[in-house]
């Protein structure tokens, strides 16, 4: 009995009381939330937690002398805290929370996703949030000061949650005075004239492999293989990311359709049933090229059922769509798969086969391939890179970046060696900026840009530093292929090979993103045929200085 008493006495008295554990839990949670949703360095977590504990000690939060409230009272802040927990989880998973991505994936389909590892994180987050809620409940029941002001705190937490703020902004789009700002600037893509010998097209979407990695001071030689390829072609710097273009489907639609992806189902819409068609109201690259006689193919390592990729491509002129479902059974090693699907070396081997097949069929062809080797959080480096780079530690994204860049370069070189790119425009582009990865703090330390480079014998190698976005990829690719389009414009994009100012150059990212939050007309255009609800007609009080027309027909004059 005496030994047990001595052992108990050895435990610090503070650790035997719930107050210390409750305050420590809340302090660590506050610090973690702060560094996750802001650009503070990770190490700032501990000073923030220490500051909370110091304040709690000075103000004697949770001590018996603080006139406790009834112990069975449930705090009003439990729901707001839970919503903040969801937001922090999303921010920790993706870096920046895009509600448009959440809504679109719920609507287009999230089956066959490869994010199984995030399920473990979700369980851990849930357990951590239960501890936070328990600690906060204890504090409110123990300290009358917290109990008296806790309802005000609940209101502040609700109003300050960026997730709820975003929902409110989208809801206000229903009553905005000008919900057609972007739609007035939209020019339906039309090919006016084609070259005598139209080139083939190879588009390599490099998952999350943004041009920011080209900064050698921050990332070393990880981007090196792509930089070598770029010396032979046209490299575009300054390709920024607009809202509603920051995930894979949104990035591909932005670059192929010239418009942000505004999901059909947002707060004021009722279109939450699975989609049969994806952006059926606009013409995209596949529609334009198929009308010119191109045979088009899409290959991706992940499932075509995820996020509506298959429905998008089959609905926009692509006749052969291949993903994990059809490619995995053809692997020599059926176990050589990651949680999302095929590794990039396997995907590129099938891409070569597809190009050979299309070349043998005759006529112009277009092949679009989407890698997944640099998919956050750590990437999925292919087996082919191990001999060159050594073993992957399972966390370093720069290893995956270098691997993916090298495999893309090797694919281009092998196709050239076979003579399959003799009259082919090769486009290498990141689908979007990366989400949270091991190099996140270095990535957000300065301006970020997407990868975009064009390779073709007729293009003079050069670097073009222009402020644009992925919306400008569609008209740029069309003009690089020799097609003539009205006033160098298609969708909301402007050819970066022309001297016409882009939307970003004319208005800036912040102004365009602000307009996106209010836009309803372009959303209805994208989803024409899905019977989106229309707001009551309202007077449009847009300011027109004469630089742009009020409405743009198919063959409109250029802006300005």
UniProtKB/TrEMBL annotation:
Task: Enumerate the subcellular locations listed in this protein's record, separating them with semicolons.
Answer: Cell membrane
The residue ranges flagged as biased composition, category Basic and acidic residues, are 541-560
> Which residue windows are transmembrane per the record?
20-37, 43-61, 73-90, 119-140, 152-168
Q: Where is this region: Disordered?
A: 533-560
Name of a matching Pfam family: Sulfatase
The primary location reported for this protein is: membrane
Q: Record's superkingdom?
A: Bacteria
> Which Gene3D superfamilies does this chain map to?
Alkaline Phosphatase, subunit A
List residues of the Sulfatase N-terminal domain.
Answer: 268-482
- Mind listing the UniProt keywords for this protein, alphabetically? Cell membrane, Membrane, Transmembrane, Transmembrane helix
Q: Which PANTHER family has this protein been placed in?
A: LIPOTEICHOIC ACID SYNTHASE, PHOSPHOGLYCEROL TRANSFERASE I
Q: In its UniProt entry, what is this protein called?
A: Sulfatase N-terminal domain-containing protein
Could you tell me which species this protein originates from? Halomonas halophila
Species lineage: Bacteria, Pseudomonadati, Pseudomonadota, Gammaproteobacteria, Oceanospirillales
